[in-house]
């Protein structure tokens, strides 16, 4: 991970940029003085309750269905250790480092609000773990998205205790005890309520939502670029993207997408070649070309809604029980992941539909009956060469998978904890499948761009727009132009990297200025 500075963590909400800097940029974190003061004040109240003969959930009682048992003071440290060890029950593949770092940061922020009751030393230890680049090993399965992302967060808490496995800054798997020693961090001896406070949050699903929004913001610009390239290379019209037509249906995302496409196609020699009635005999284009702003625009508006939900969550302190400003410690249901789960599912629908339309445009390029004068499958010698025939198969396979991933996770619920936790959100599962959908959309758009660029080259001597020509030039640095069949998989992967790294968007924006 590259060094991306330091993010201050206090009681005030974090920004999306803060989360991305820590998760993807490797930024260190620093607890503010206000955070340390808020944490200390809440801790004082928890310690008062720990000494009281009156049972307080999570402080002097068991958890979940075992909340009716009063725990002797001599056993309360063991109670917290046992909670973390028993809940660190994840299974399956390892979760990505960026997801775990986002999860850790968001849990630290909740601690910094002063509503959880941990000690300042415990919060500082978690901050130290993040800053040292130590990432606990978290597994794919273990969260139901209610009572928080329990198992994933428990694996982080376990590492704070000096137990379990982690990856160090170099990515090497090592024991938590060794990594803490090397970083000069003392293992935490958990005190009353601290184990519960460290694991009872929706931080994993929220972190994945924020990262998906970051990705989709770039990918929807890319979708406008790929659609514009296809409209251009398929001799379509840009008149349908005119602002006066978009104003008839005033969805904000639609207007932005259409404006992007108009900017991208500006000064296109290919478009100019068939504007007059003599050279343009088609009344209107197919839906996948003509309605691109309507689909990509609706996707934008959905991402905006998801961002509002994420913003509310970033202003939240998710824990149970919660320490209130007046000193009361109250049970609550804020750990339920439904608000986040719903938009995670909604974004998977969006990704699948944008990818589906992209695949349809690619398919039009390959059909001689619909590609307006291009060779079949864009092949050099159709029959001897297959051109991009199987690239579309790859797209179709990904889109089919994305449609399955668009089935909502949040409509499912399996009761747990002896029916105490009888309705759960499955938000973690929604987040995990959205990550696969985002990867799928990246790949589908990359294939469309690769195919459209080949078609634009085949339109020579007609010249593409400066913006689309810049995309073609970026591809041609690593991917040759049209010719006889070649090993295609590396070319697809190269295009995928250019999309994922933002090179395609940057190439266009260098010509057009910022896209919306």
From TrEMBL:
EC assignment: 4.3.1.3
Keywords: Histidine metabolism, Lyase
Annotated GO biological process: L-histidine catabolic process to glutamate and formamide; L-histidine catabolic process to glutamate and formate
An annotated GO cellular component: cytoplasm
Catalysed reaction equations from the record: L-histidine = trans-urocanate + NH4(+)
Entries under InterPro entries matching the protein: Aromatic_Lyase (IPR001106), Fumarase/histidase_N (IPR024083), HutH (IPR005921), L-Aspartase-like (IPR008948), Phe/His_NH3-lyase_AS (IPR022313)
Molecular function GO labels: histidine ammonia-lyase activity
Class in the EC hierarchy, top level: lyase
Signal peptide positions (record): none
Name of the protein in its database record: Histidine ammonia-lyase
Protein species of origin: Nonomuraea soli
Highest classification ranks of the organism: Bacteria, Bacillati, Actinomycetota, Actinomycetes, Streptosporangiales
């Amino acid at each position: 991970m590259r060094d991306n500075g330091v993010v201050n963590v206090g009681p005030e909400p974090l920004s999306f940029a803060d989360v991305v800097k820590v998760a993807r940029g490797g930024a260190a974190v620093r607890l503010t003085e206000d955070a340390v003061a808020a944490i200390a004040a809440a801790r004082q109240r928890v310690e008062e309750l720990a000494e009281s003969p009156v049972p307080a959930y999570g402080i002097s009682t068991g958890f979940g269905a075992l909340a009716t048992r009063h725990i002797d003071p001599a056993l309360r440290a063991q109670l917290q250790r046992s909670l973390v060890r028993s809940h660190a029950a994840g299974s399956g593949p390892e979760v990505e480092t960026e997801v775990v770092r986002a999860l850790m940061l968001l849990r630290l922020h909740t601690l910094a609000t002063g509503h959880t009751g941990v000690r300042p030393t415990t919060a500082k230890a978690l901050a130290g773990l993040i800053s040292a680049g130590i990432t606990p090993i978290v597994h794919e399965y273990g969260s139901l998205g209610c009572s928080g992302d329990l198992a994933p967060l428990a694996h982080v808490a376990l590492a704070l205790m000096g137990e379990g496995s982690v990856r160090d800054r170099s990515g090497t798997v090592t024991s938590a005890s060794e990594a803490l020693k090397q970083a000069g961090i003392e293992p935490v001896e958990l005190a009353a309520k601290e184990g519960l406070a460290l694991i009872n949050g929706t931080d994993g699903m929220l972190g994945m939502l924020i990262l998906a929004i970051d990705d989709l913001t770039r990918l929807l610009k890319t979708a406008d670029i790929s659609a514009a390239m296809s409209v251009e290379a398929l001799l379509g019209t840009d008149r349908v993207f005119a602002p006066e037509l978009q104003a008839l249906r005033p969805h904000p995302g639609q207007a932005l997408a259409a404006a992007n496409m108009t900017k991208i196609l500006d000064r296109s020699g290919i478009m100019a070649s068939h504007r007059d009635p003599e050279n343009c005999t088609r009344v209107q284009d197919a839906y996948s070309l003509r309605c691109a702003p309507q689909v990509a625009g609706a996707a934008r508006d959905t991402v905006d809604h998801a961002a509002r939900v994420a913003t509310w969550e970033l202003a939240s302190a998710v824990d149970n029980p919660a320490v209130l400003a007046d000193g009361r410690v109250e049970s609550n249901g804020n750990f339920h992941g439904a608000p986040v789960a719903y938009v995670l599912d909604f974004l998977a629908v969006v990704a699948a539909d944008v990818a589906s339309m992209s695949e349809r445009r690619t398919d039009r390029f390959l059909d001689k009956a619909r590609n307006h004068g291009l060779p079949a499958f864009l092949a050099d010698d159709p029959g001897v060469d297959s051109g991009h025939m199987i690239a579309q198969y790859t797209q179709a396979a990904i889109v089919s998978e994305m449609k399955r991933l668009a089935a909502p996770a949040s409509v499912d619920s399996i009761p747990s904890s002896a029916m105490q936790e009888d309705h759960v959100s499955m938000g973690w599962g929604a987040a995990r499948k959205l990550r696969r959908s985002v990867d799928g959309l990246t790949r589908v758009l990359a294939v469309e761009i690769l195919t459209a660029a080949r078609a634009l080259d085949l339109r020579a001597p007609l010249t593409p727009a400066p913006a689309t020509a810049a995309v073609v030039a970026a591809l041609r640095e690593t991917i040759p132009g049209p010719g006889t069949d070649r090993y295609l998989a590396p070319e697809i992967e190269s295009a995928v990297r250019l999309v994922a790294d933002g090179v395609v968007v940057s190439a266009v924006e260098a010509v057009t200025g910022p896209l919306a």
